[in-house]
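Bacterial regulatory s, gntR family protein
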Amino acid sequence: MNAPAEFPGTWKPNAASSVPLFEQLRLQVIHLADGGKLPPGTRLPAVRALAERLDVAPHTVARAYKELEAAGVVATRGRNGTVVCARDERLGGLSAAAADYAAAAKAQGASFAEAVQLLAAAYDGG
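Tokens:
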């Protein structure tokens, strides 16, 4: 499957945000994949091509892709590019909840370590 012509569409990372550009891209891909707008098998643009479209450095896109791959959202298949992986529905919902939690924690000024600490306490029932 080829990437939909509209990806990334009109979406651009917000340079004024405190959220790093690679993280904004990572969250956008997760959002689109979980919402079905990037179905499994969809090929994402090459790193350099997407970096040019988004007006960001190639390493920004490469880092987002690397983190998405580590999370199982995408798979890099050499010359065949980076494609969206099939995701278990439970994890898709969990990913959305995690994104919401991260956004709420950032909005309230919590550091990453503080947010993780709160999540760990909630996970352990404390």
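Residues 89-125 form one domain.
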